[in-house]
Structure formats: structure tokens, C-alpha cells
Amino acid sequence: MIDRETRKSQVLAKFKELYGHEPEGWVRAPGRAELLGTDTDDHQGYVLTMSIHLDTWIAYRRSGSNSSRVHSLNLEESMEFRVGEEPSEPAASWDRYVSGVSRILQIHGYKPRGVEAVIHSTVPIGGGLSSSASLEVATALMLQAAGSFSVEPKQMAQICQQAENQCVGVQCGILDQYSSVFGKQGTAMLLDCRSLSHIEIKIPSDIRIVICDTNVPRTLAASGYAQRRKECDDATAILREQDPEIRTLRDVNTPMFDHLKDALPKVNQQRCKFVIEENQRVMDFTAAVVRNDREQMRRYCAASFAGLRDLYEKTVPVMEHMFEAMSSGPGVIAARQSGGGFGGCMVAYVLADQVEPFAAHVRRAYTEKSGVEPIVYVTEPSPGAGTMDIQ
User: In this predicted structure, what is the pLDDT of residue 221?
Assistant: First the structure.
């Protein structure tokens, strides 16, 4: 893991090389770990989430015009765009996130200014830890500072979500952007995706959150994410015909679903069943965390993984191998997926004094089964997005 001073030096060196002077400001935005609640945010449900130590940095300077030049140190690629304007050619990959945020800000009446910038991120791309939201929120903070305007935090999360929905084409919920904006050192958050509010949830002090990266990246736009979202949305429309008070799957509990489900095709039934049960699991799991009931924590996480595999069908073989490796590790309390599935990262709750043997076991057991070397991070609830005093 790159240390802060080395990271700072690399960003500064590239900035001076590209633009001939030093940046005037720095911002950062973290990734997030979804502790429980896969895709429940898409349906205005509940999620237990936290921001993590992995984050995106941007060093920037105002360009003096509407033209922007932005360089990614991770990809060693540069892009140019005019803030608030549709690209003259179809944008590809990461630049859609950056230019898209400027366009949505302008739609909402803000006046972003052109910048020269260098981006560096420690959030693994395609790992399910919200590298895209981290980039979007950092971009919004940069444009806010460069344009000398102020965006209320909740609206900033919504603008970044809108940029991903409209400019990137991923119909994600609010979870990732909200987590990046509102994260707080030392505490997880129980997020209500309908009211866009949260309460703080303390993880027991002797438990560490360990992120286990399968090292098999996933891409939401190219995966079955959009198909699962459509299957649930189509089903919700059918259920609404049966009961007009149903706005989203958030409004359906298990007894209601059992009464109405025969109106749905089998695949749609399965998808909805997972989301409805997962939404309830978030509440039950959070209560177990507060009670420090570790057996129940393990049971709810295992049920979440089983539902993702059997009902939502977003599990791939490497995720099965990682789940087995995590679940059999020393000191493990609970283990599950994190993020959208189809590979990427998973999370484990591990006793603090067993983290090192746990990590060694996961690396060995997972590699033996998958033939892939995993990456293991120990993390904790970390601060949300903001400006940086790089000195």
C-alpha cells in the first residue's frame, strides 16, 4: 500500500510535469464497504455501509477558462473537456464520470470552472468498493472549490448519482455516493435510501473489517447489474397493479410478497424475494451488531451470500472460493459479498487479534482453489469526502 508522502510526491511530480506549476488545492473522497444490503438502495431500502481508508485524491488548479485537462495517474491517461458541455465525441471509460459531474452541476444551476488536475486513487477499479463514486464525489468537490460555489452535502451525493445514471449509463442507487460524502471516522451508517438519512452504528471495538479482493474485477455497466435492476423494476410495476401503495420493493414485506408473488414470472419472483429478504436482513443484522450477537451476525451474512447466489444469481466461482476461504479462517465472525457481485471484493468481520492469521489463511486457501492471488485489506470506518491540507 502506497504511503501518504510517496503518494503526494508522485501526484506533485506529475502535476508539475504536465502543467508547469503547483496545484492550488487538493480534495479527497473515500470508497465504501457495503456491510449488508446488496442492491437494496436501488429500491429505496436500507443499507449498512461505511466509508473506508481507500480513497481518491485530486490535485487541481483553475485553468482560467472553461477548458479542463485531467490526468489519471492510475491509468496514465489524460483527457480534455469543456466543463458543463456534452463531449464532441462519445466519451469512454473514466472520463465520463469526470465530465459528467460538471454537466450535472451545470444543469442544477451551478457554474463550474475549467481546471487542470491530476487524479490518483487507491480504491481498486472494478472491485465493488465504489471507485466510480469516489471519483465522482472528488470531482464534485474539486469543481465546487474551483468555482467558488457551495453544494449542500445531500445534493452533492444526488448530483454524483445522477451523473452516473445519465452520463455513464449505470442505473445505480444512492448508496455509493452517499457513503462517500457522509462517511465518518469510527462509525458505520445505517442508511435509509428513501429519506436519505442515516444513523450511526458502532462496530464492536474488538472486531475489524477485512476486505478480501478476489482480484477478478467486475464492471457494473457490462455485467448483469442492469438486467437484475430491470427484472425488479418490471416486477414492481406488476405488484403495483395489485396494490397501488407499492412504490418500490421497500414497500413489500415477506407476507405481502407471499400473497402477491404468483402474479410474477418465476425469475422476477426470485429477484424480488432476494431484495425483500435482504432489506429485512439489514435491519436484523444491524440489531445483532448493536447487541453484539455474533452468532446472529454470522447467520445473516451467510444468508445474504446464499440469496445472492441462489435467488439473485450474481455469484461467480471465485466468489464461492473466497466465501469458503473467509468462512473457514481463524477469528472470523461473519463473511459476505460487498458491492454488486460478479467478482470484486468481499468482506469479513474478524477478531482484531486474529487478523494476520486470518489474512494468511485466506490468501493460501483462496489461491489453492482459484489459482488467483487475492488482495487483503484491513480497514475501518473512515472520514467522508473533503478538502485536504496536503502540508
Answer: 46
CA distance 33 to 349: 12
- All domains in the chain, ordered by first residue: 4-201+383-387 (3.30.230.10), 207-379 (3.30.70.890)
CB 348 within 8 Å of CB 332? yes
Question: Which residues have CB under 8 Å from 265's CB, separation 6+?
Answer: none
**Gap between the Cα atoms of 32 and 176, Å rounded:** 7
> Rounded to an integer, what distance in angstroms lies between the CA atom of residue 379 and that of residue 104?
32
Beta strands in 124-226 (DSSP E): 188-192, 197-201, 207-213
Condensed to tens digits (0 to 9), the pLDDT of residues 215-251 reads 987 655 456 888 999 999 999 999 999 999 999 999 9
pLDDT digit string, tens, across residues 321-375: 999 999 999 999 999 999 778 888 999 999 999 999 999 999 999 999 999 999 9
Reported as type and span, the H/E element at residue 121 is strand 115-121
Active site residues: 176
